[in-house]
Design brief:
The chain is of the alpha+beta class and 430 residues long. It has 16 helices and 14 strands. The structure holds a DNA duplex (18 and 18 nucleotides).
DNA sequence: TCTGGGGTCCTAGGACCC
DNA sequence: TCTGGGGTCCTAGGACCC
Protein backbone atom coordinates (compact mmCIF):
# COMPACT_ATOMS: atom_id res chain seq x y z
CA UNK A 1 0.00 0.00 0.00
CA UNK A 2 1.20 3.48 -0.90
CA UNK A 3 0.38 7.03 0.05
CA UNK A 4 1.14 10.12 -1.99
CA UNK A 5 1.51 13.32 0.02
CA UNK A 6 1.35 16.43 -2.13
CA UNK A 7 1.50 20.10 -1.17
CA UNK A 8 -1.35 22.10 -2.72
CA UNK A 9 -0.31 24.77 -5.24
CA UNK A 10 3.07 24.41 -3.61
CA UNK A 11 4.97 27.58 -4.55
CA UNK A 12 1.94 29.74 -3.89
CA UNK A 13 1.36 28.05 -0.53
CA UNK A 14 5.00 28.71 0.43
CA UNK A 15 4.61 32.40 -0.36
CA UNK A 16 1.39 32.57 1.63
CA UNK A 17 3.08 31.22 4.74
CA UNK A 18 5.10 34.43 4.88
CA UNK A 19 2.44 36.73 3.47
CA UNK A 20 -0.90 35.66 4.94
CA UNK A 21 -2.51 38.70 3.34
CA UNK A 22 -2.35 36.73 0.07
CA UNK A 23 -4.60 34.04 1.48
CA UNK A 24 -7.77 34.68 -0.40
CA UNK A 25 -6.28 36.54 -3.37
CA UNK A 26 -5.66 35.05 -6.77
CA UNK A 27 -1.88 34.48 -6.80
CA UNK A 28 0.55 33.14 -9.38
CA UNK A 29 4.28 32.44 -9.10
CA UNK A 30 6.27 33.28 -12.23
CA UNK A 31 9.18 31.47 -13.84
CA UNK A 32 12.64 32.90 -14.47
CA UNK A 33 12.58 36.34 -16.05
CA UNK A 34 8.92 36.45 -15.01
CA UNK A 35 8.14 34.61 -18.22
CA UNK A 36 5.12 32.55 -17.33
CA UNK A 37 2.98 31.23 -14.48
CA UNK A 38 4.37 28.06 -12.91
CA UNK A 39 2.10 27.88 -9.87
CA UNK A 40 -1.44 29.14 -9.34
CA UNK A 41 -3.66 29.51 -6.31
CA UNK A 42 -7.17 28.07 -6.56
CA UNK A 43 -8.51 31.59 -7.04
CA UNK A 44 -6.09 32.08 -9.96
CA UNK A 45 -7.22 28.77 -11.46
CA UNK A 46 -10.80 29.94 -11.15
CA UNK A 47 -9.89 33.00 -13.23
CA UNK A 48 -9.02 30.57 -16.01
CA UNK A 49 -5.24 31.02 -15.79
CA UNK A 50 -3.59 27.95 -17.28
CA UNK A 51 -0.37 26.32 -16.15
CA UNK A 52 2.46 27.94 -18.11
CA UNK A 53 0.37 30.93 -19.18
CA UNK A 54 2.68 33.74 -20.38
CA UNK A 55 2.73 36.61 -17.93
CA UNK A 56 2.03 39.25 -20.58
CA UNK A 57 -1.24 37.48 -21.38
CA UNK A 58 -2.53 37.50 -17.80
CA UNK A 59 -1.01 40.76 -16.58
CA UNK A 60 -4.24 42.69 -17.10
CA UNK A 61 -5.88 40.53 -14.40
CA UNK A 62 -3.77 42.36 -11.82
CA UNK A 63 -5.91 45.39 -12.48
CA UNK A 64 -9.27 43.81 -13.17
CA UNK A 65 -9.21 40.91 -10.70
CA UNK A 66 -6.61 41.79 -8.09
CA UNK A 67 -4.24 39.07 -9.32
CA UNK A 68 -0.89 39.04 -7.48
CA UNK A 69 2.07 37.80 -9.54
CA UNK A 70 5.27 36.93 -7.66
CA UNK A 71 8.78 36.16 -8.91
CA UNK A 72 9.86 32.67 -7.93
CA UNK A 73 12.08 32.15 -4.89
CA UNK A 74 13.36 28.62 -5.34
CA UNK A 75 15.66 28.70 -2.32
CA UNK A 76 12.64 29.31 -0.11
CA UNK A 77 10.61 26.54 -1.75
CA UNK A 78 13.47 24.06 -1.35
CA UNK A 79 13.68 24.85 2.33
CA UNK A 80 9.93 24.54 2.88
CA UNK A 81 9.97 21.30 0.94
CA UNK A 82 12.55 19.75 3.25
CA UNK A 83 10.47 20.57 6.28
CA UNK A 84 7.31 19.21 4.72
CA UNK A 85 9.07 16.01 3.61
CA UNK A 86 10.44 15.26 7.03
CA UNK A 87 6.97 15.49 8.58
CA UNK A 88 5.41 13.46 5.75
CA UNK A 89 7.97 10.72 6.38
CA UNK A 90 6.19 10.03 9.66
CA UNK A 91 3.33 8.42 7.77
CA UNK A 92 5.07 5.12 7.03
CA UNK A 93 8.32 3.17 7.00
CA UNK A 94 9.79 4.29 3.66
CA UNK A 95 9.65 7.49 1.67
CA UNK A 96 10.47 8.40 -1.90
CA UNK A 97 10.77 12.10 -2.56
CA UNK A 98 9.32 12.33 -6.02
CA UNK A 99 9.44 16.06 -6.61
CA UNK A 100 9.73 19.28 -4.66
CA UNK A 101 6.15 18.96 -3.41
CA UNK A 102 5.35 15.24 -3.57
CA UNK A 103 6.49 12.12 -1.81
CA UNK A 104 5.39 8.50 -1.92
CA UNK A 105 5.31 6.64 1.37
CA UNK A 106 4.92 2.89 1.86
CA UNK A 107 2.39 1.85 4.46
CA UNK A 108 3.10 -1.72 5.42
CA UNK A 109 2.66 -2.23 9.11
CA UNK A 110 0.73 1.03 9.48
CA UNK A 111 -2.57 0.59 11.28
CA UNK A 112 -5.58 2.80 10.82
CA UNK A 113 -4.04 4.29 7.71
CA UNK A 114 -6.68 6.89 6.92
CA UNK A 115 -6.69 8.35 10.40
CA UNK A 116 -2.95 8.47 10.47
CA UNK A 117 -2.96 10.31 7.15
CA UNK A 118 -5.26 12.94 8.64
CA UNK A 119 -2.91 13.31 11.57
CA UNK A 120 0.11 13.81 9.34
CA UNK A 121 -1.77 16.27 7.18
CA UNK A 122 -2.62 18.25 10.27
CA UNK A 123 0.96 18.18 11.50
CA UNK A 124 2.22 19.56 8.19
CA UNK A 125 -0.45 22.26 8.17
CA UNK A 126 0.42 23.39 11.69
CA UNK A 127 4.18 22.86 11.55
CA UNK A 128 4.99 24.15 8.08
CA UNK A 129 1.83 25.93 7.03
CA UNK A 130 1.38 24.05 3.74
CA UNK A 131 -2.01 22.47 3.00
CA UNK A 132 -1.62 18.94 1.62
CA UNK A 133 -3.63 16.34 -0.17
CA UNK A 134 -3.02 12.68 0.63
CA UNK A 135 -3.98 9.83 -1.71
CA UNK A 136 -3.82 6.19 -0.67
CA UNK A 137 -4.01 3.09 -2.84
CA UNK A 138 -2.55 -0.38 -3.44
CA UNK A 139 -0.10 0.89 -6.13
CA UNK A 140 1.74 4.11 -6.81
CA UNK A 141 -0.50 4.90 -9.78
CA UNK A 142 -3.63 4.41 -7.63
CA UNK A 143 -2.16 6.52 -4.83
CA UNK A 144 -1.52 9.26 -7.38
CA UNK A 145 -5.06 8.95 -8.67
CA UNK A 146 -6.45 9.03 -5.14
CA UNK A 147 -4.48 12.20 -4.56
CA UNK A 148 -5.97 13.81 -7.68
CA UNK A 149 -9.44 12.82 -6.46
CA UNK A 150 -8.73 14.22 -2.99
CA UNK A 151 -7.85 17.56 -4.57
CA UNK A 152 -10.81 17.68 -6.93
CA UNK A 153 -13.22 16.72 -4.17
CA UNK A 154 -11.86 19.60 -2.10
CA UNK A 155 -11.67 22.22 -4.81
CA UNK A 156 -14.83 21.42 -6.75
CA UNK A 157 -17.49 20.31 -4.29
CA UNK A 158 -19.87 17.92 -5.98
CA UNK A 159 -17.27 16.44 -8.33
CA UNK A 160 -16.73 13.56 -5.91
CA UNK A 161 -18.28 12.53 -2.59
CA UNK A 162 -17.26 15.04 0.08
CA UNK A 163 -15.69 12.41 2.33
CA UNK A 164 -12.91 11.93 -0.26
CA UNK A 165 -11.72 15.53 0.01
CA UNK A 166 -8.14 16.15 1.23
CA UNK A 167 -7.49 12.55 2.24
CA UNK A 168 -8.71 9.85 -0.15
CA UNK A 169 -8.12 6.18 0.54
CA UNK A 170 -9.24 4.18 -2.50
CA UNK A 171 -8.30 0.92 -0.79
CA UNK A 172 -11.05 1.16 1.80
CA UNK A 173 -13.91 1.90 -0.60
CA UNK A 174 -16.56 -0.78 -1.21
CA UNK A 175 -16.14 -2.34 -4.67
CA UNK A 176 -19.18 -0.69 -6.22
CA UNK A 177 -18.34 2.73 -4.87
CA UNK A 178 -14.79 2.41 -6.23
CA UNK A 179 -16.18 1.48 -9.64
CA UNK A 180 -18.48 4.50 -9.57
CA UNK A 181 -15.57 6.77 -8.67
CA UNK A 182 -13.40 5.37 -11.46
CA UNK A 183 -16.25 5.78 -13.93
CA UNK A 184 -16.42 9.44 -12.99
CA UNK A 185 -12.72 9.94 -13.58
CA UNK A 186 -11.35 10.84 -16.98
CA UNK A 187 -8.36 8.82 -18.27
CA UNK A 188 -6.37 12.04 -18.61
CA UNK A 189 -6.25 12.23 -14.80
CA UNK A 190 -4.07 9.12 -14.65
CA UNK A 191 -0.33 9.43 -13.98
CA UNK A 192 1.45 8.65 -17.26
CA UNK A 193 -1.44 9.53 -19.56
CA UNK A 194 -0.97 12.93 -21.17
CA UNK A 195 -3.07 14.80 -23.67
CA UNK A 196 -2.02 12.82 -26.69
CA UNK A 197 -2.70 9.34 -25.37
CA UNK A 198 -5.82 10.53 -23.59
CA UNK A 199 -7.28 11.64 -26.94
CA UNK A 200 -6.29 8.40 -28.62
CA UNK A 201 -7.95 6.39 -25.85
CA UNK A 202 -11.10 8.47 -26.18
CA UNK A 203 -11.21 7.80 -29.89
CA UNK A 204 -10.93 4.10 -29.09
CA UNK A 205 -13.99 4.40 -26.83
CA UNK A 206 -12.04 4.42 -23.56
CA UNK A 207 -13.02 7.62 -21.81
CA UNK A 208 -12.95 6.88 -18.09
CA UNK A 209 -10.58 5.08 -15.76
CA UNK A 210 -12.96 2.20 -15.12
CA UNK A 211 -13.12 1.45 -18.86
CA UNK A 212 -9.34 1.57 -19.01
CA UNK A 213 -9.02 -1.00 -16.23
CA UNK A 214 -11.32 -3.29 -18.24
CA UNK A 215 -9.33 -2.97 -21.48
CA UNK A 216 -7.45 -5.93 -22.94
CA UNK A 217 -3.77 -5.78 -21.93
CA UNK A 218 -2.54 -7.26 -25.20
CA UNK A 219 -4.44 -4.67 -27.21
CA UNK A 220 -3.09 -1.88 -25.03
CA UNK A 221 0.46 -3.09 -25.51
CA UNK A 222 0.13 -3.55 -29.28
CA UNK A 223 -1.73 -0.36 -30.00
CA UNK A 224 0.15 1.82 -27.54
CA UNK A 225 3.12 0.59 -25.56
CA UNK A 226 4.44 -1.49 -22.70
CA UNK A 227 4.47 1.72 -20.71
CA UNK A 228 0.69 2.15 -20.96
CA UNK A 229 0.19 -1.55 -20.28
CA UNK A 230 2.06 -1.12 -17.02
CA UNK A 231 -0.17 1.80 -16.10
CA UNK A 232 -3.30 -0.31 -16.69
CA UNK A 233 -1.91 -3.12 -14.54
CA UNK A 234 -1.21 -0.64 -11.78
CA UNK A 235 -4.76 0.70 -12.03
CA UNK A 236 -5.98 -2.87 -11.56
CA UNK A 237 -4.02 -3.06 -8.33
CA UNK A 238 -1.01 -4.97 -9.62
CA UNK A 239 2.07 -3.19 -8.34
CA UNK A 240 4.59 -2.69 -11.17
CA UNK A 241 6.37 0.49 -10.10
CA UNK A 242 8.54 0.12 -7.03
CA UNK A 243 9.42 2.76 -4.48
CA UNK A 244 12.79 4.36 -5.15
CA UNK A 245 14.05 5.33 -1.75
CA UNK A 246 17.48 6.40 -2.96
CA UNK A 247 17.19 8.57 -6.04
CA UNK A 248 19.06 6.97 -8.95
CA UNK A 249 21.99 9.04 -10.20
CA UNK A 250 21.09 11.38 -13.03
CA UNK A 251 21.86 10.26 -16.56
CA UNK A 252 22.01 13.81 -17.78
CA UNK A 253 22.51 17.09 -16.00
CA UNK A 254 21.35 20.28 -17.61
CA UNK A 255 21.61 23.96 -17.01
CA UNK A 256 19.62 26.02 -19.47
CA UNK A 257 18.12 29.49 -19.37
CA UNK A 258 16.10 31.88 -21.41
CA UNK A 259 17.71 35.28 -21.71
CA UNK A 260 15.85 38.36 -20.56
CA UNK A 261 16.80 40.06 -23.84
CA UNK A 262 17.64 38.40 -27.16
CA UNK A 263 21.37 37.86 -27.62
CA UNK A 264 23.04 38.09 -31.02
CA UNK A 265 26.77 38.34 -30.32
CA UNK A 266 29.16 35.57 -29.51
CA UNK A 267 30.72 37.32 -26.51
CA UNK A 268 27.74 37.40 -24.17
CA UNK A 269 26.72 33.97 -25.40
CA UNK A 270 30.08 32.59 -24.32
CA UNK A 271 29.67 34.27 -20.93
CA UNK A 272 26.27 32.65 -20.49
CA UNK A 273 27.33 29.22 -21.67
CA UNK A 274 30.39 29.34 -19.40
CA UNK A 275 28.22 29.99 -16.42
CA UNK A 276 25.76 27.21 -17.33
CA UNK A 277 28.62 24.77 -17.86
CA UNK A 278 30.07 25.73 -14.53
CA UNK A 279 26.75 25.23 -12.74
CA UNK A 280 26.21 21.89 -14.44
CA UNK A 281 29.69 20.76 -13.37
CA UNK A 282 28.83 21.70 -9.81
CA UNK A 283 25.69 19.54 -9.93
CA UNK A 284 27.78 16.76 -11.41
CA UNK A 285 30.27 16.88 -8.54
CA UNK A 286 27.39 16.86 -6.07
CA UNK A 287 26.35 13.45 -7.32
CA UNK A 288 30.01 12.41 -7.56
CA UNK A 289 29.69 11.77 -11.25
CA UNK A 290 31.95 12.20 -14.26
CA UNK A 291 30.68 13.33 -17.65
CA UNK A 292 31.85 11.84 -20.94
CA UNK A 293 30.18 14.37 -23.23
CA UNK A 294 29.03 17.95 -23.17
CA UNK A 295 26.11 19.12 -25.28
CA UNK A 296 25.54 22.80 -26.02
CA UNK A 297 22.54 24.32 -27.73
CA UNK A 298 21.17 27.72 -28.59
CA UNK A 299 18.00 28.75 -30.34
CA UNK A 300 15.78 31.64 -31.35
CA UNK A 301 12.26 32.08 -30.01
CA UNK A 302 9.77 29.61 -31.45
CA UNK A 303 7.05 32.22 -30.86
CA UNK A 304 8.48 35.19 -32.68
CA UNK A 305 8.71 35.89 -36.38
CA UNK A 306 12.09 36.28 -38.03
CA UNK A 307 14.83 33.90 -39.07
CA UNK A 308 14.93 30.71 -37.04
CA UNK A 309 18.04 29.19 -35.57
CA UNK A 310 18.22 26.05 -33.48
CA UNK A 311 21.36 24.04 -33.26
CA UNK A 312 23.09 21.76 -30.83
CA UNK A 313 26.33 19.86 -30.75
CA UNK A 314 27.78 17.09 -28.61
CA UNK A 315 31.42 17.55 -27.69
CA UNK A 316 33.15 14.39 -26.47
CA UNK A 317 35.55 14.87 -23.56
CA UNK A 318 38.96 13.27 -23.75
CA UNK A 319 38.19 11.30 -20.62
CA UNK A 320 35.33 11.38 -18.14
CA UNK A 321 35.69 14.40 -15.91
CA UNK A 322 33.97 16.70 -13.43
CA UNK A 323 36.55 19.42 -13.96
CA UNK A 324 34.83 22.76 -14.43
CA UNK A 325 37.64 24.15 -16.57
CA UNK A 326 37.53 21.25 -19.03
CA UNK A 327 33.75 21.24 -19.18
CA UNK A 328 33.56 25.00 -19.71
CA UNK A 329 36.19 24.84 -22.41
CA UNK A 330 34.41 22.06 -24.26
CA UNK A 331 31.08 23.84 -24.01
CA UNK A 332 32.58 27.05 -25.38
CA UNK A 333 34.35 25.15 -28.18
CA UNK A 334 31.04 23.55 -29.12
CA UNK A 335 29.29 26.90 -29.02
CA UNK A 336 31.84 28.39 -31.40
CA UNK A 337 31.22 25.55 -33.82
CA UNK A 338 27.44 26.02 -33.96
CA UNK A 339 27.34 29.80 -33.64
CA UNK A 340 26.25 31.89 -36.59
CA UNK A 341 25.83 35.64 -36.75
CA UNK A 342 22.54 37.36 -37.32
CA UNK A 343 20.08 35.56 -35.09
CA UNK A 344 18.25 36.83 -32.04
CA UNK A 345 18.85 33.96 -29.66
CA UNK A 346 16.61 33.74 -26.64
CA UNK A 347 17.85 30.61 -24.98
CA UNK A 348 20.96 28.49 -24.59
CA UNK A 349 21.99 25.62 -22.42
CA UNK A 350 24.59 23.06 -21.48
CA UNK A 351 23.80 19.40 -20.89
CA UNK A 352 26.26 16.90 -19.46
CA UNK A 353 25.84 13.42 -20.92
CA UNK A 354 27.33 9.95 -20.67
CA UNK A 355 27.58 10.27 -16.90
CA UNK A 356 29.50 7.64 -14.98
CA UNK A 357 30.16 6.98 -11.33
CA UNK A 358 33.11 9.03 -10.18
CA UNK A 359 33.53 7.50 -6.74
CA UNK A 360 35.86 4.93 -8.22
CA UNK A 361 39.28 6.21 -9.11
CA UNK A 362 38.12 9.76 -9.36
CA UNK A 363 41.56 11.15 -8.87
CA UNK A 364 43.18 9.22 -11.66
CA UNK A 365 40.34 9.72 -14.08
CA UNK A 366 39.74 13.28 -13.26
CA UNK A 367 42.85 14.92 -14.41
CA UNK A 368 46.42 15.20 -15.12
CA UNK A 369 48.82 16.44 -12.51
CA UNK A 370 47.19 19.83 -12.21
CA UNK A 371 44.16 18.14 -10.87
CA UNK A 372 44.89 17.66 -7.24
CA UNK A 373 45.10 21.38 -6.70
CA UNK A 374 42.15 21.84 -8.87
CA UNK A 375 39.87 19.42 -7.12
CA UNK A 376 40.62 21.11 -3.79
CA UNK A 377 39.78 24.36 -5.48
CA UNK A 378 36.46 23.01 -6.74
CA UNK A 379 35.61 21.68 -3.31
CA UNK A 380 36.12 25.17 -1.92
CA UNK A 381 34.24 26.75 -4.79
CA UNK A 382 31.22 24.50 -4.31
CA UNK A 383 31.17 25.19 -0.59
CA UNK A 384 31.32 28.93 -1.05
CA UNK A 385 28.51 28.82 -3.56
CA UNK A 386 26.40 26.65 -1.33
CA UNK A 387 26.95 28.94 1.62
CA UNK A 388 26.75 32.37 0.05
CA UNK A 389 24.38 31.62 -2.77
CA UNK A 390 24.69 30.04 -6.14
CA UNK A 391 26.89 31.97 -8.51
CA UNK A 392 28.79 33.93 -5.85
CA UNK A 393 31.99 32.60 -7.36
CA UNK A 394 32.22 31.06 -10.80
CA UNK A 395 34.60 30.24 -13.57
CA UNK A 396 34.56 33.02 -16.09
CA UNK A 397 35.47 32.82 -19.71
CA UNK A 398 36.36 35.59 -22.11
CA UNK A 399 35.70 35.68 -25.76
CA UNK A 400 39.26 36.87 -26.36
CA UNK A 401 41.22 33.66 -26.17
CA UNK A 402 39.47 30.63 -27.54
CA UNK A 403 38.68 28.23 -24.76
CA UNK A 404 40.44 30.23 -22.10
CA UNK A 405 38.94 30.40 -18.69
CA UNK A 406 39.84 32.25 -15.54
CA UNK A 407 38.49 32.64 -12.07
CA UNK A 408 36.20 35.53 -11.51
CA UNK A 409 33.48 36.85 -9.30
CA UNK A 410 30.03 37.52 -10.42
CA UNK A 411 29.21 41.15 -9.88
CA UNK A 412 25.85 41.58 -11.43
CA UNK A 413 22.45 41.18 -9.86
CA UNK A 414 23.75 40.57 -6.39
CA UNK A 415 25.74 42.57 -3.92
CA UNK A 416 28.94 40.60 -3.59
CA UNK A 417 28.85 39.04 -0.18
CA UNK A 418 32.23 37.42 -0.40
CA UNK A 419 34.97 39.96 -0.59
CA UNK A 420 38.30 38.28 -0.91
CA UNK A 421 40.72 39.92 -3.29
CA UNK A 422 40.49 37.90 -6.47
CA UNK A 423 44.26 38.10 -6.85
CA UNK A 424 44.60 35.88 -3.80
CA UNK A 425 42.74 33.06 -5.40
CA UNK A 426 45.05 30.66 -7.17
CA UNK A 427 44.62 30.68 -10.90
CA UNK A 428 43.95 27.26 -12.27
CA UNK A 429 45.93 26.07 -15.24
CA UNK A 430 43.26 25.58 -17.82
C1' DT B 1 7.82 44.65 -25.77
C1' DC B 2 6.57 39.93 -23.18
C1' DT B 3 6.09 32.41 -23.74
C1' DG B 4 10.37 28.09 -17.55
C1' DG B 5 13.71 24.68 -16.27
C1' DG B 6 14.53 20.64 -15.21
C1' DG B 7 14.25 15.33 -16.11
C1' DT B 8 13.14 10.18 -18.45
C1' DC B 9 12.40 7.11 -22.30
C1' DC B 10 11.60 6.15 -27.11
C1' DT B 11 11.95 6.55 -32.28
C1' DA B 12 13.92 7.62 -36.72
C1' DG B 13 16.97 9.01 -40.39
C1' DG B 14 21.56 9.97 -42.12
C1' DA B 15 26.56 9.39 -41.88
C1' DC B 16 29.89 6.31 -41.37
C1' DC B 17 32.09 1.86 -40.54
C1' DC B 18 33.15 -3.14 -41.34
C1' DT C 1 13.37 -4.14 -62.83
C1' DC C 2 16.66 -5.98 -59.15
C1' DT C 3 21.55 -2.65 -55.11
C1' DG C 4 23.58 -6.60 -47.87
C1' DG C 5 23.37 -6.61 -43.10
C1' DG C 6 24.52 -4.97 -38.87
C1' DG C 7 26.47 -1.81 -35.88
C1' DT C 8 27.47 3.00 -33.76
C1' DC C 9 27.11 7.88 -33.43
C1' DC C 10 24.82 12.14 -34.11
C1' DT C 11 20.86 15.00 -34.51
C1' DA C 12 16.19 15.82 -34.00
C1' DG C 13 11.90 15.31 -32.19
C1' DG C 14 7.89 13.29 -29.61
C1' DA C 15 5.78 11.62 -25.51
C1' DC C 16 5.46 11.86 -20.62
C1' DC C 17 6.43 13.86 -15.65
C1' DC C 18 7.05 17.80 -12.02
Amino acid sequence: MYALVDGNNFYVSCERVFRPALNRCPVVVLSNNDGCAIARSNEAKDLGIKMGAPYFQIKHLEVTEGLVALSANFALYGDMSERMMSLAAGLGPEQEIYSIDESFITLHGVRDVTRRAWTIRDRIARGVGIPCGIGIGPTKTLAKLANAIAKDAERKPGSYPAHLARVCNLAELPRLELQAILEQTHVGAVWGIGNRISNQLNEAGIANVWQLTQADLGTIRRRWSVVLERTVRELRGESCIALEDAPPPKKMIACTRSFGQPVEDLGPLIEAVSEYASRAAEKLRRQRGLAGQVQVFAHTSPFRPGPRFSRSIVVPLLRPTADTALIVRSAVDGLRRIYEEGYELIKAGVILLDISDGTIKQNELDLGEASKDRSALYGALDKINMRYGRGTLHLASTGLEPGSARWGMRQERRTPRYTTNIEEIPVARC
